[in-house]
Amino acid sequence: MTKQNMEKQTDSTLKDCEKYELAITNFVLGEKMNIPEAELFNHLAKCKSCQGDFRNWRVTHAMMCAKEYDSRPEIKEKNEAFIKNLVYGEPAKAGKPVSSQSLPGNRIPINAKWEIKSAAERIYLCLKENGKTPIPVLRKKTELFDFPFYEALGALADQGRAILHKDKTTYSAEAR
Questions:
Q1: N or C: which end of the chain has fewer CB within 10 A?
Q2: CATH fit for domain 110-175, picks 1.10.3720.10, 3.10.20.340, 1.10.10.10, 1.20.1560.10
């Protein structure tokens, strides 16, 4: 096929697609179409360009609907209360917006508390099993990152469940 024939075919395909543009938009919006639905879907089955337009219109319409839904005051309140409860582990009162001023000072989000508690149990079990262990070795054995490892180790020491030792240049810990 020559380049000129390919251009003619592309032009005719684009002209054919023009009649489906409005139909795609109307279908996505749930409005009456100027062509039968079966004709539109037959065309969509064959035309990659219109398939892309159809996907783009569906995504755009979904985003517009979601934005409208999320902007309703009762939904905003519900979402803010849900997020506050999720992050801080306490029931939020509807009607009170979440702001940095309304949160108690020095509160650790609930997921961080869980992470520290989980790490502390891991460290404690490792210390019980291995006895006095150098801190770098303990960190490697527990496979924990700096946070929550050092937070958990400090919490164990504060609770009296672990003893921290300093031997010349090496720090180690053992379970009580």
A1: N
A2: 1.10.10.10
